Amino acid sequence: GNSxxxxxxxxxxxxxxxxxxxxxxxxxxxxxxxxxxxxxxxxLQLLLKATKAxxxxxxxxxxxxxxxxxxSFHLEKGSVQVSDSAVYFCALTLNxxxxxxxxxxxxxxxx
Amino acid sequence: GAGVSxxxxxxxxxxxxDVALRCDPISGHVSLFWYQQALGQGPEFLxxxxxxxxxxxxxxxxxxxxxxxxxxxxxTLKIQRTQQEDSAVYLCASxxxxxxGYGYTFGSGTRLTVV
Lengths: 111, 115
What we know:
The complex is a heterodimer. By secondary structure, chain A is an all-beta fold.
């Protein structure tokens, strides 16, 4: 079946450190890939997306590249801030309207 | 409205009680989705509406779960005879696209606790 696997958290970093959150997927067909972020007490927000192989999604200093050969969509940021502390969800859709989410990775950034 | 509004934010129900969760999508959004998010897990799809038509209800876990969107705007998720395993955050999302995933806006959710 179609699924998303994320690295388990929490990921704990100091401010200005480099961030990588791994995400791999299994899909029948060619999915679109997404990263969503959930800040405490808030709803999920779309962070970035990529709709085909080799596309790079980027937003707010975060980047992720759709790698078909490794079925991955790892999230990266060069210098994290305390305000980036949140739960990050990798997700896919196969154009069937529903999103399939990973279990989420909690990021904690300390000053 | 400016965003997706869900009410109530928190609901405590005694086991066996019926509950109704409301979602007010962004005005004019065609597509509306319900997801269930258990503690420490990612959201899981429950059901999908396009206007008033429920096009996919494959994620509803049992016949105790029922969703409606009679006029193509506000939606209600009803859970009958609640059980402890129904405890979760219920998320609503809407989209202007007919094919979802390209611009969902999520509400803040309703946290249901069944005691």
